[in-house]
Structures are given as structure tokens and as C-alpha cells.
Fold:
Amino acid sequence: MIRKLLEALFQHKLLLLLPPILIPAIVVPIAVMTTPPAYETSVSVWIDRPAYLSNKDGTSAWVSAVQTQSGRLSELLRTRAFVADVVGRTSLAPLLNSPAGQARIADLITHGVTIGAAPGTVATAGAMTNEHLLTIRVQGPTAQLSYELCKSIIDAYQEKSAAD
Structure:
């Protein structure tokens, strides 16, 4: 019985071994060549409430400064004026004039910017890695665009916070 099984196995070894070898050999190069490159830039900002001022700025004592700033920045990134200010500082500024460009920008900001959480996780209060370190990650199609967006988000937010 075993002799017949081994004989059948060796007679049809090409039919048995071809699919596990041939299919990955065809699919892997196609998958590698069709996957677009993605570049990620991250910046971390140390945020803390001043110890020499009283905590009467309207924020809760139970919510950390990072959670407060993360929430403010997330809300600002959902506004058209702040996104236009951020994009106006980058090489994407000409796209603001067309509806298709605005849709591309909105998609890039929505899917490419993560605030305060590790990539692939939901940005919640429990996902903060540190109570003083605000992390902003930007994923873009080019390294230059990713860097420009990250830098312009920080610059625009600092100017907005200083003006408020």
C-alpha cells in the first residue's frame, strides 16, 4: 500500500510541486511592481503645561496636554481653511484651484496624516505613547511631499496657536 502511494507520488511529483512553486513565482513580482511606494515622515513635539501658571485655561486637569493638543490639531485638520493654509505652504498649492485637486488633497490629509497614535491604530486617549510627546506622522507618495506636509502642519499649527 505504501509502495503504491510512493510510486504515485514520484510519478506525479511535477504536478504536485508545480503549483506551490509556480504560483508564488508569478504573483510576487506582479505584486511588488504594482505596489506604489509610500514615504513616511514623523515628528514628535514635547508638550507640557507650564508649571508656573495656574491651570485655569479651561482645560480639564484630568486630560493631559497632549490629548488636548491632539484633539485641537485633529479638529483643525478637518477644516477647509486650515487645510488650505497647510497645503499653501507645500508644492501642492496649485491643486487648491481645482475641485479634483481639492479632492486629492482631502484624501491625502484624511488617509495620510496620523496624530498621536502608532500607524494602523485608532488615535484614542489610550493609544498615546507618552503623556508629553505628541507624534504626527505623514505618509505621502514622495519623500519631499511627505516632509513638506509634516513641516507645514507643524508651522501652521504653531502660528494658529500663537494667534489664538
Q: What stands out?
A: Helices lie at 2-11, 13-34, 65-76, 80-88, 99-112, 143-163. The chain has a mean pLDDT of 83. DSSP finds six helices and three strands in the chain. The first helix runs from residue 2 to 11.
